[in-house]
Amino acid sequence: MERESARTVMERRYGELDSGRTTLRIAGREYRLREILARWMLDVEGVLSIDGGELGGGRYWIRFLDGDDRRYVVFEFDTGFDILSEMRADSLLWEGDDFFFSRS
């Protein structure tokens, strides 16, 4: 049985890159994605916010690129910003040859 790629699993649950929102309303307050990353001290150079969304039941997600690790990352978290799960996908495998040509 062939194993699904991290990209396939991530896109099925959270949609394609940039298909989510750029702000999230959590506990009555609107947050920009960088503000959410700052809660975990991840608003640093090399971490690029991409998108986010709401899963329901007080559960949210945020997707970002960890440039140092070269991975797309999704955190699922609750209204208290406690991280409930994490998924990572290798950006080189995700983008394939386009990774090299899109930056030249």
Give a written overview of the molecule:
Strand 3 (47-56) and strand 4 (59-66) form a beta hairpin. The longest helix has 9 residues, at 6-14. The strands form 2 sheets. The protein has a 4-stranded antiparallel beta sheet with strand order 3-4-5-6, sandwiched between helices. The protein has a two-stranded antiparallel ribbon with strand order 1-2. The protein has a single domain, classed as Nuclear Transport Factor 2, Chain: A (Roll), CATH 3.10.450. The chain is of the alpha+beta class and 104 residues long. The protein has 4 helices and 6 strands; from the N terminus they run αββαββββαα.
Describe the secondary structure blueprint for this structure.
Elements: H1 6-14, E1 23-26, E2 29-32, H2 33-39, E3 47-56, E4 59-66, E5 71-78, E6 83-90, H3 91-95, H4 98-101
Antiparallel strand pairs: 1-2, 3-4, 4-5, 5-6
The structure class reads alpha+beta
Can you tell me the residue ranges where pLDDT is under 50 for at least 5 consecutive residues? none
Secondary structure tally: strands: 6
The gyration radius over C-alpha positions equals 14 Å
**Mean pLDDT score:** 89
Tell me the β content: 35-45%
Number of helices: 4
Helix content: 10-25%
Shape descriptor reads globular
**Major sheet: size, sense and barrel closure?**
4 strands, antiparallel
Number of domains: 1
The CATH architecture: Roll
The topology string of helices and strands comes to HEEHEEEEHH
**What is the CA-CA span between the terminal residues?**
38 Å
Strand order of the largest sheet: 3-4-5-6
Return the CATH topology: Nuclear Transport Factor 2, Chain: A
Indicate the CATH class.
Answer: Alpha Beta
